Amino acid sequence: MNRGSTGSDGSRGGANLPALREHNEALLLDLLRAAGAPGLGRAELAARTGLTPQAVSKIMARLAAEGLVAEAGRGASTGGKPRTLLRLVPGARHAVGVHLDRDELTAVRVDLAGSVLARWNGPLDFGAGPDPVVDAALRAVVRVRERAGPPLLGVGVAAPGPLDWRSGVLGRVTGFPDWAGYPLREVLQGRLGLPVVLDKDTNAGVAAGAPAGPEPGTSVYLHVGTGLGAGLRLGGGIHRGARSAAGEFGHQVLRLDGPACRCGGRGCLEVLCLDAVARGDLGGAARILGEGAANLVALLDVDRVLLGGRVVAATPEVFVEGVRSVLDRRGLPGVVALAERGVAEGAAELALGPVFGRG
User: What angle do CA 158, 161, 164 make, to 5 degrees?
Assistant: First the structure.
């Protein structure tokens, strides 16, 4: 079969050239981000991507002209001319992440490396309805946005689920039925004049915990705050499910005919865990969370379990040890660790995602 001639970017004639060019740029930028300040040489980039050295050079020239890539010095000589190393320029672009929790709002501005440059947080009444919450989100973006700074790529917004991340429309959020059907992404995008990505808070949490580079592995992020939820990273990307409903971790039933849960069920992990927290039994809450985590690890065979949310942050060692002890007792693999970055940072990562070919 004739696949056409090779183009100047290593592409083939007849392909969707703009899309392929963007894909190759994202692939290279992701590798440079993972390499950090030391950078990588063109030959290394070509070897890791399968692109030709000529294609890499052309792409790097374009990215350098846009201010996204710069020289990082010279590498050690292997007998010939020392190779030129290239690095990502973190400050060339920024993004904003916003976490709309049920009672708190957090906003951050990050650079291309994901480093937080500005942060703001304050109280929020999610139950007050869309109009005041949207106004609060807009004010938060203004507070962290740098007026004369580099271009802002967009805004990532993390909100309680359920929601449809493709359409940007909220579902019937547990305890907040007035939000059902509200087109939050469209409204924010219109008011801000910037691209907006909307996703569940737990998906933002797992995005925040993904290692840099093209192979971030598999992981589950468990968020314990005013509710319980999970974000899943499977097959190299966030797993949302066909209806954006994956990760309803807190409403798996652990005790038949247990206490009533606000979802309408009984004996859910969420009500059992949060009741233990309310009693001050943090060790018990951690073990209950561990049983739910063990079910996920056994079902999905993930590499890492990341814990986050305000309840975990208050006593992180109790929850990390409690979850780890349950996995050990059940003979299950997986690293258990505290999430190093929060949901707002993960929302910003979602806004940066297109630059690095991540979803």
Answer: 85
Q: Please name every residue paired with 151 in a beta bridge, in sequence order, or none if there are none.
A: none
The DSSP result for 79-119, as a single string, is SSSPPEEEEE-GGG-EEEEEEE-SSEEEEEEEETT--EEEE
Three-class secondary structure of residue 359 per DSSP: coil
Distance CA 173, CA 114 (A): 29
For 82-121, the pLDDT digits (tens) are 789 999 999 999 999 999 999 999 999 999 999 999 999 9
Neighbouring CB atoms inside 10 A of 50's CB total 10
Please list, in sequence order, all residues whose beta carbon lies within 8 angstroms of the beta carbon of residue 64, skipping any fewer than 6 positions away: 70, 86
| The two three-digit tokens of residue 28, written as one number | 């290279």
pTM over 0.85: yes
Alpha-carbon distances of 194 from 146, 155, 221, 264, 356, rounded to whole Å: 14, 7, 28, 38, 18
Three-state DSSP class for residue 118: strand
